[in-house]
Amino acid sequence: MNTIEWNDFEKIELRVGTIIDAQDFPEARNPAYKLQVNFGDDIGIKKSSAQITDLYSKADLIGKQVVAVVNFPPKQIGPVISECLITGFHREDGKVVLTTPDSEVPNGSRLA
Most buried among 53, 76, 90, 105, by the most CB within 10 A? Predict the structure, then answer.
């Protein structure tokens, strides 16, 4: 395992946001959704793609709060420019479980 310095961790903006839109992403190499996530007034709405179709339907995702890295540079993923990285954990079967707060918090809140 690589170690990092505290100031390296402080550079990562892990914020909570609410998914407000989820669409199919048929152009993706692996099954994925195109998401829009509301991170509150200071950060706004950011787009992302997420390979989470195994465990989540589009309907399941609307209104769900997720944890994302919001300060990566935009990344082109097929025809979509991803503006944030939605976080999750791989299960043994390879499916991704989203990182979510267990109680609602204000959009844009930073991981403490």
Answer: 53
Length of the chain: 112
pLDDT tens, position by position, 72-91: 999 999 899 999 999 999 99
State the pLDDT confidence band at 106, using cuts at 50, 70 and 90. Answer: very high
CATH at residue 43: 2.40.50.140
Residue 46 forms part of a structural domain: yes
Q: How many domains does the chain have?
A: 1
Q: Is residue 112 part of a domain?
A: no
Cβ neighbours for 45, distance < 8 A, ≥ 6 positions apart: 20, 36, 37, 38, 39
Sign of CA dihedral 90, 108, 48, 64: positive
Domain that holds residue 91: 6-98
